[in-house]
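QA checklist item 7 of 12: single-chain prediction sanity check.
[x] sequence parsed
[x] length recorded as 114
[x] structure emitted
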Amino acid sequence: MGKETVAGAYRALLKAAKKTFAGDEWMLQNSVKEIRSKFEENRQATGADHIRKLIADAYEASHFVANMIVQAKLNPSGGYGTTPPLCRSPSSLNSLFVFFTVLFCASIEDYHLV
C-alpha cells in the first residue's frame, strides 16, 4: 500500500457512488448513508494490519462501485436498459465480453476465447 488513508478511501467511495448513481437521488442518498454507516461501524478499529485491510477493502469497493455497477434507465418502450460503456481498445472489449460471459454462467470455450 502507498499512502492510502481512511479519509481518502471514504472520499473515493463517495465519488464512486456519485458517479454511478448520478440522476438517481434515492440510490445516491442511500449509498452515502451506507458508506457512512460502515465507516462509523469501524471507527474504533485498532491494529495497523486490520486498519490497512479496512482501507484496502474500501478502495476495492470504490473501484467495484465505479466500474462494475451499471444504472439501468426506463426506456420509452417501458423496459429498462443502458448504453454500453465506450471501449477504448479491443482488449477492454474482450474483457467486457468475458465479464458478461462469466456473469451469465456461459462457458468461455463456447465462444472460442481459449
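[x] summary fact logged: The CA atoms of residues 49 and 88 lie 37 Å apart.
[ ] second reviewer sign-off
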